[in-house]
Write a structure and sequence with these properties.
single chain; alpha+beta; Alpha-Beta Plaits; 5-stranded antiparallel sheet; 4-stranded antiparallel sheet; 9% strand; elongated; monoatomic cation transmembrane transporter activity; Sodium:sulfate symporter; transmembrane helix
Length: 593
């Protein structure tokens, strides 16, 4: 035991590096999630005494991870209030009117939105837009998805709140004694990289595949569309109005037909006047269905009993089991619709929309149903032997009336942080308080918007970084590298840090790379006697602007699946994009510092 203690004392720095190498191998093998590897690594450093208890728990005082969490909640509020969805609808309207011009407008819009919102929800919303734009412009969708994702990633590198990586680096840098990095400090360098990247994408689009995705479907599999019917009540003020005047239809709600007196009409119906009892056959995503239900302007779906309202009771989701005895029958003929006071308000079928209308759609195994009913009816459906996964629907209606609060809250965070009134973290936390107390988003939804996996990874890697400092591993690495870099021109350090961070982030989690490299970069700058800020910014952007692999950035994986891309598709366009963006960012850093 005494010998082990002596070895740990004599070779602390070397043991720290050996543990780090083991973590890198575990990251690359991907046998366990990155957060698990990071947490186990932090535990190993603590168990070996390479980080003391005070140092280990001090990482939870770092404001960066909690600022990331607060910004995720604010992004969730903008989605919950329908703000982001409304922007997407406007984009689609423009695409239908001016398809080619819309591509340029979408590109600019993506850059602006990504400056202030987390890229992941932005890309999730962009995927169905890319499929619609492909239809409107006759451009293969595979030539749109990767570029849109790349533009979103580049836009996130323009401000400090654009990505969680930026906030992590800034938080660690502040703890290391650097001056706080402002929200727009990195903007000139991010803009240079974005402009160069967009130009590269435009010139090298021929490298992208043009075949159709074999699994993506109409919206890339990211949106669950339902077939439903909107029934015009007899006492409605909508009677006599033209369908096109409803301001109802867009990306989320698509008119498929009009059912009147048992006859279904198709085609251009926007100038058709509504009659009492008309049924508008529409395709809508789950959130749109719930929003229409809460609006109270229409009765939704079908029911055996006309007194059963879609506005009352609870909405549940249920999947039809393959063994259901009514498989192949029309939806209006299924037994529980007549036995219970329920109303079917939506029907979803994977990669295919049922029809011709909701009542006459034929049941298939794995169909998903949205059902509104009383508590007693819901309990009966839970016990139904041929329905699977019966549970209260997690889909919520938009709270559009609260959109202005969410927008002003986000704008206040940006403004106060930009003017240095208060820190970004404090501004974000105050904004979270505002959106919670005003019910822009419920507490349950707010906490679900926080990616716990990301937070665990960040906290664990902060602990690993501190352990490397306390054990002397950072000093040891800096000592190895310093003689090599002392003979190199000062400006070359920016390029070395940027591309080293880029290569690591193409293989590992960019947040882990950022948390690990920040203290090393700052220590190296101080050892060489140079300003650490340009190197920290190079690390910040290099760890995020990764385009050459589907695992280089979290949104890369989303478009990889949605577009049915191959690994080589990312490499072909991503490698030159990495080089051009990196050269633009680094050159601007050298020239302006």
């Amino acid at each position: 035991m005494h010998m082990v203690t002596a070895l740990l004392g004599a070779y602390r720095a070397e043991i720290g590096l050996i543990l780090l190498a083991c973590m890198f191998v575990a990251f690359l093998r991907e046998r366990y999630p990155a957060s698990v590897v990071a947490a186990l690594g932090a535990c190993a450093y603590a168990a070996l005494g390479l980080i003391d208890e005070k140092g280990l728990f001090s990482v939870f005082a770092n404001p960066a991870p909690l600022t990331v969490a607060a910004m995720l909640v604010l992004s969730g509020a903008l989605i919950r209030t329908g703000t982001v969805n409304r922007v997407a609808d406007l984009i689609m309207t423009r695409a239908q009117q001016h398809p080619r011009l819309a591509l340029a407008e979408v590109t600019v819009g993506i850059v602006i939105i990504s400056c202030f919102l987390n890229n992941t929800p932005v890309v999730v919303l962009l995927i169905p837009i890319a499929f619609k734009l492909a239809q409107a412009t006759n451009i293969p969708v595979k030539k749109l998805l990767i570029p849109m994702n790349a533009v979103a990633v580049m836009g996130g590198c323009i401000t400090l709140i654009g990505t969680s990586t930026n906030l992590i680096v800034a938080g660690i840098a502040a703890e290391q004694g650097m001056e706080p990095i402002g929200i727009f400090t990195i903007s000139p360098y991010g803009i240079a990289g974005t402009v160069a990247g967009i130009a590269t994408l435009a010139c090298l689009s021929f490298l992208l595949p043009s075949d159709e995705p074999s699994i993506g479907g109409e919206n890339g599999g990211t949106v669950q569309d339902y077939l439903t019917e909107l029934v015009v009540p007899h006492d409605s003020d909508l009677v006599g109005r033209e369908i096109g005047s409803l301001s109802l239809f867009g990306r989320s709600v698509v008119l498929l037909g009009l059912k009147r007196a048992g006859e279904i009409r198709r085609g251009d119906l926007m100038e058709e006047e509504l009659h009492a009892g008309d049924r508008l056959i529409v395709r809508a995503d789950g959130t749109a269905v719930m929003t229409l239900r809460e609006s109270g302007r229409f009765e939704l779906g079908i029911a055996a009993d006309s007194e059963t309202s879609s506005h009352e009771g609870t909405v549940i989701e249920a999947m039809v089991a393959p063994s259901h005895p009514s498989t192949g029958d029309r939806l209006r003929d299924i037994p529980f619709l007549h036995a219970l006071r329920v109303r079917i308000i939506g029907m979803h079928r994977a990669r295919h929309l049922p029809g011709p209308d909701l009542a006459d759609a034929r049941i298939r195994g794995a169909d998903r149903l949205l059902i509104a009913g009383s508590d007693d009816a819901v309990r009966s459906l839970r016990d139904h032997p041929h329905l699977m996964g019966v549970d209260i629907s997690r889909t919520r209606a938009f709270r559009r009336s609260k959109a202005w609060i969410a927008i002003l809250s986000m704008a206040a965070v940006v403004t106060f942080a930009a003017l240095n009134f208060i820190s970004i973290g404090l501004a974000a936390f105050l904004a979270v308080g505002v959106i919670l107390v005003t019910r822009c988003i419920d507490a349950e939804e707010a906490w679900s918007a926080i990616d716990g996996d990301v937070l665990v990874l960040i906290f664990a890697m902060l602990a690993v970084g501190m352990a490397l400092e306390q054990s002397g591993s950072v000093a040891l690495m800096v000592g190895w590298v310093t003689p090599l870099l002392q003979v190199a021109p000062t400006w070359s350090l920016v390029f070395v840090i940027y591309f080293f961070a880029l290569i690591l982030s193409e293989l590992l989690s960019n947040n882990a790379v950022a948390a690990l490299m920040t203290p090393i970069t700052i220590a190296l700058a101080r050892q060489l006697g140079v300003d650490p800020l340009p190197l920290v910014i190079a690390l910040m952007i290099g760890a995020s602007a990764c385009f050459a692999t589907p695992i280089g950035y979290q949104t890369n994986a989303l478009v990889h699946a949605a577009g049915d891309y191959r690994f080589a598709d990312f490499v072909r366009i991503g490698v030159p994009l990495n080089i051009v963006v990196g050269l633009a960012v680094c050159t601007t850093l050298v020239l302006l510092n």
